[in-house]
Design a protein that fits this description.
The complex is a heterodimer of chains A (112) and B (116). Helices cover 0% and strands 51% of the residues of chain A. The radius of gyration of chain A is 13 Å and the shape is globular. With 112 residues, chain A is mostly beta strands. In chain A, the strands form three sheets. In chain A, strands 2, 5, 6, 10, 11 and 12 form a six-stranded mixed sheet that branches. Chain A has a four-stranded antiparallel sheet with strand order 3-9-8-7, with no helix packed on it. In chain A, strands 1-4 form a two-stranded antiparallel sheet. In chain B, strands 2, 4, 5, 6, 9, 10 and 11 form a seven-stranded mixed sheet that branches. Chain B has a four-stranded antiparallel sheet with strand order 1-3-8-7, with no helix packed on it. Classes of the chains: A mainly beta (112), B mainly beta (116). Chains A and B meet through strand 5, strand 6 and strand 10 of A and strand 5 and strand 10 of B.
Chain lengths: 112, 116
């Protein structure tokens, strides 16, 4: 079956530190890959996406590159802010109309 | 764009009552909507997939008679928790996917349900 594995959190960083949240996937075909962010007390927001190998998704300083050879989609940001504190979900979707499979989420805490 | 509105955001009710949660896509048409339950420590569980004008598809282990889903239009889906009990207390989140292939899901802000 399809699955997404994320690093367990919480991840605690100081402001302006470099962020990496690892994500690997297992899929029976060629999925689209997503990162969603959930701020406290809210639903999920799409952060970025990539639909084919070597695509790079980017938004708000976050980036992730679709690596088919390593089946990975790691999330990175060069300099985190306190306002980036949230839970980050890696996800995949196979086919144009398939449901999304989510990872378990990684909580990020950024301290001043 | 791509806003999903979920209502109510928080509800407290007595055990045995039924609670309806609405999910609306405000600026796009959503052929497909999804209902999730989020447990402590953040994991998301897909409960069901609803397609406009047809019966919802429930995930294994989800009681369809307890969690009634209706998707009567391209912009509205409802989840009714019937005869709610304290173990149904949770954070429920809906999402809607724009019509067409390879579209991402857009999420509502969730509903915190507390059953006393």
């Amino acid at each position: 079956g399809n699955s997404v594995t994320q690093m367990e959190g919480p991840v605690t960083l100081s402001e302006e530190a470099f962020l990496t949240i690892n994500c690997t996937y297992t899929a029976t075909g060629y999925p689209s890959l997503f990162w969603y962010v959930q701020y406290p007390g809210e639903g999920l927001q799409l952060l970025l996406k990539a639909t084919k190998a070597d695509d790079k998704g980017s938004n708000k300083g976050f980036e992730a590159t679709y690596r088919k050879e390593t089946t990975s989609f790691h999330l990175e940001k060069g300099s985190v802010q306190v306002s980036d504190s949230a839970v980050y979900f890696c996800a995949l979707s196979l086919g144009g109309y398939q449901k999304v499979t989510f990872g378990t989420g990684t909580k990020l805490q950024v301290i001043p | 764009g791509a806003v999903v509105s979920q209502h109510p955001s928080w509800v407290i009710c007595k055990s045995g009552t039924s609670v309806k949660i609405e999910c609306r896509s405000l600026d796009f048409q959503a052929t497909t909507m999804f209902w999730y339950r989020q447990f402590p420590k953040q994991s998301l569980m897909l409960m069901a997939t609803s397609n406009e004008g047809s019966k919802a598809t429930y995930e294994q282990g989800v009681e369809k008679d307890k969690f009634l889903i209706n998707h009567a239009s391209l912009t509205l889906s409802t989840l009714t928790v019937t005869s709610a009990h304290p173990e149904d207390s949770s954070f429920y989140i809906c999402s809607a996917r724009e019509t067409g292939p390879y579209q991402p899901q857009h999420f509502g802000d969730g509903t915190r349900l507390s059953i006393l």
